[in-house]
Amino acid sequence: MERIALEAARLLFAQGGAGWVVAVLLGLACLHLHRQGLRALEARIGEAGATATALERASQTNAAVAAALESRSRVLEDLARLAAEIARGLERNDERARERFDEMLRLLADLRRQGRP
After folding, report:
1. For the segment 77-110, what is each residue's pLDDT rounded down to a tens digit?
2. pTM above 0.90, yes or no
């Protein structure tokens, strides 16, 4: 190790100190490359943060859409059940069939109002 250090020192002073110039220029180049590397890493971190924010917003939107679809599915299931009960009531010529039919029309009207912003 000492031999390498002595040889490096000898080269620095050889040829009128030209080794010092090379060492300084090499140090400046390393410093410049280090700064550029830091800037690139900062840019990548910023991009990763923006991507994470976009993914979080998309996730929230997807959750809201899923909740809305589930609500609509429940309403449609209720309407299908009610229509089946009405059909059975009509077969028996039941007076309650008219009441249930009116209830179904009310639910459909509510569904239409919910669908409009």
Report:
1. 888 888 877 777 776 666 676 777 778 888 887 8
2. no
Q: For 105-110, which contacts have Cβ atoms below 8 Å and span 24 or more sequence positions?
A: 107/75, 107/78, 107/79, 107/82, 108/79
Question: What is the C-alpha radius of gyration for the chain, rounded to an integer number of angstroms?
Answer: 39
Amino acid at 35: R
Distance between CA atoms of residues 97 and 24, nearest Å: 96
Q: Do 53 and 45 touch, CB atoms closer than 8 A?
A: no
Angle, helix 96-115 to helix 18-91, in steps of 10 degrees: 160
The tokens for 102 are 């009116």
